[in-house]
Amino acid sequence: MTIHETARTDSITRPRYVCAIGAMYSAIAIPRVMPIAQCGPGCVDKQYAGLAYINGHQGAGYAGGASPPCVNTGEKEVVFGGNERLRDLIQATLKVMDADLFVVTTGCISDIVGDDVQSVVGEFQRRNVPIVYAETGGFKGNNFTGHETIVDAIIDQFLGDYDGEKEAGLVNVWTVLPYHNTFWRGDLAEIKRILEGIGLKVNILFGYRSGGVEEWKTVPKAQFNLVLHTWLGLSTAKHLEKKYGQPFLHVPVIPIGSIETTRFLREVAEFAGVDKAAAERFIEREEEEYYAYMDNFSDFYSEYFLGIPSLFAVVADSAYALAINKFLGNQLGLIPVKVIITEDPPEEHREAIKGEFRNIAPDISLEAEFIEDSYVIDQQIRALPRKPAMLLGSTWDNDLAKEINSGIVEVGYPVSREVILNRGYVGYRGTLSLIEALFTAVVRRIP
Q1: Residue 141: how many CB atoms within 10 A of its CB?
Q2: Which domain holds residue 46?
Q3: What is the pTM of this model?
Q4: Which of 5, 53, 67, 82 has a 20 to 30 A CA-CA distance from 29?
């Protein structure tokens, strides 16, 4: 048995995700949506600490942190069930909490003892209370799994059926995981901006650029769904295709750099049938500005060329790892020596993900490895015959970077040594921020 197999069966050290109930922060990421937690004491606080505090110090927002009502399941609820306690909590919440939609999330205890959450929440739904429930016990998966469970709950229990007209040019975007991806706010803002730039109306659904619950109500009216991720959101898009007859476009490479961003926008424009001439005018303006900054950056890049590290490794979730490798390998000419995927994607998507990494550039092919255990990740990086001079990982990789004398840029969960407000790394503007972060780390290591 290999070290990796031992770690998977016996224990996982410092996994780079949280449990399924952590997806309550997907609900919190929708303006004026509030979770109600049916779980043991401490679970809600741990999700805040793990996702919103130590991960970029993003903050609690309107409904996060200490705000979410919680059953605080104890011995009585374990023995006699927690239905009555949940019913009382929902009633009290409706009196004192102001929200447009409530999402009941369950923890391990509730799901193990078999609380009838559906029945309790159903009582309030029949009274036209805007409330849904999602079974998110930690043993059912991580917060990626929980995210899709909550999204499905909102679609099926709140939006319901729809057979009306579709709105031409309206797109629902399913992309990076809110809060888990430290840079989600900036990324979503840039994705919305560039899609609107080519003539689309965009339901970005999460974050400050979202219209909240009113925007979610227009999800069934969209012309199509856009999945901008290696795999997250695909099941949602397929569900919406079946439920509302909406086609979807899957773009696995999140655009970082002008080449990928322009390719992405042209692909979406073709699929959506927008005015190509207008889309090209927007792309031309964006590229002109982007390359003006890159022209200035080229002074540094050429002056310090011999001091710039050429070898790099990425330890991150599959979407960011793919996008970063595409940009650094195909557009900046750096050489990847290792890529490790950390979010435990479903087995049915892994071969497709591996295929994307085998096609980074015409002369660059990588074999992606799926590893959750940070101890094993450390072992893999240490064993490389050619050590990366730049490691793009998380806060947990800082000691390893020092050990192998590598620069470190935190791009994956958790990012604990930076405060992130609205920085993003995708699109034309986000790429410039990523370049700043990367080469700031470089110049700090130049004697």
Answers
A1: 19
A2: 11-159
A3: 0.94
A4: 82
